[in-house]
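S.,

Sequence below, as promised.
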Amino acid sequence: MSTIYSDRIARLREVMAERGWDAVVIYGTDPHSSEYPAARWKQVEWLTGFTGEAGDVVVTADHAGLWTDSRYFIQALSQLEGTGVELHKTRMPDSVYIPQWLAEKGVKVVATDGLCVDSYTIDDIAAQASCEIVDMPDLLDEFWADRPAIPQTPIETQDVEAFGGTPRVDKISWLRKWMLLNDVDQMFLSSLDEIAWLLNVRGCDIEYNPLIISYLLVSQDYVKWFVRGVDGAEPLDLDTLDSFDELRMDDVEIYDYSRVLEQLSDCSEGESVIYVDPSTLNYHLSSFLKSVYPEDTIKYGTSPIILQKAIKVDSEIENLRQTHVDDGVAMTRFLYWLEQEVASGREVTEWEASEMLTSLRAEIPGYKGNSFENISAYGASGALPHYSTPREGSAVIQPRGLYLVDSGGQYLTGTTDITRTVPMGECTDLEKEDYTLVLKGMIDLSMSVFPEGTTGHQLDAFARMPLWRAHRNFGHGTGHGVGYWLCVHEGPQSIRFQPNPQPLLPGMVTSNEPAIYREGMHGVRHENIILCRESGASEYGNFLEFETLTCCHIDTSAVLPQLLGQETLAWLNAYNDSVYNVLAPLLPSEVASWLYTKTRAI
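The prediction came back faster than expected:
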């Protein structure tokens, strides 16, 4: 297989030589800066074979490199073997990033697919490398013969009365008020989750993400939505037609995706000020806007929708509480099944376990699919933070050691994300230490109380301190925002070692997932979803705390109580007791009895 990718890179180099390009940069995103692109835009994977969600590629006449972070180092080294592509590690103390690397190589002409990179990134390359940028949308098209088309899946609207949220007309009114207060006449949106949230629309153009490939232009007088298929030859399904009718009743004008440049040009007449978020606006569109709008009428800044979307309203919070209970039922049934099957001596593979969990989630009313690809990893597989469980040849789960399962569901009433590391039998002393220290970090963060204005960056050390004391650590972030029947990863908040100025606010839903990974041995990750809420006030100001939404027991068989401490141990026992009391009435009797033994205090 590796020769396929080396041949593709060789063909790209032929094109580069013909056109006088010193380097080609391919980014692992799409025209909307999506974290998970649709198949059409998985250009890094097609060119190199690397399947991780975060990776960018540079090809020159004598070098091909992939830039990615520590979540994918092991995976990248394996998948790039024999392709001629070298791994460049990012987020490390000595990391050299693409703009600096290009500058050091003295490149003069850099070509890129301007649709699939934001304008900030290209401006940084141009500034650091002092090079000419060639914008070549869809530059791989000429030799990617079977490249998938832009997706066109059914579109549905969100019933906020039944499933929580805010009506789209109210959201649009809020945005228009914000525009007036900020002297903005038009706002152009390219981020798919922002568009889905504002219009209360959902689709499945991107696997695991209920999004629709589209753009949106909003003014005080109109809302123009550019979505694939409106002018297409293929007939739209009835659900989509009904959704379009509903949107038009709320004065949303619907255009084909291909007409976005035409409409932007038409709407640029006069002295209208247009607002764009350069972190999500692609370079090609940014360049086009500069060609049709006077320079002083383009206003750049962070989209206000990102923060508004992250603060869940009361109806969403109540639904999320119930959704995590329903998800907990599926998880508990799965963990019971897994223990029984492995203990019986039957061979259960990582893939079979993953499929069983998905089938149990699918029984929950309102289930719309998984929120990401299940990570079902036994033993050494768990040492890969983003392990992709193979359908064929996945490991058999043994009645010993640790099994890690990271998974989540998309429901009409919310999005879930949970990781449980499961002792399958006898564990080594090191496995127990790692299991307990990671768990202590997760619980210590869960128990934290903090003053209003505190950022996730300031809280990150709570989750890491037990590991740090033992001279251990993990490379990824501790927590990310979670959407509401939207993307499982969303901002603006995060809990991570890297600085982020966004304070945690009441209504924000965030993951809590410290971990440790030992290559060739095992991985441990414990993850719950937590809700930021008010804790009280004093003469020292207002304070906040977390409510744990995830409702699934934590196995205590590998816990070393002496490493937890009394307060942390009390939290663990109380949490498991609460899980049993909530879930037992909803479970088959044999599963409820099993859960009782699993949640007894230690």
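DSSP finds 19 helices and 28 strands in the chain.

Coffee later?
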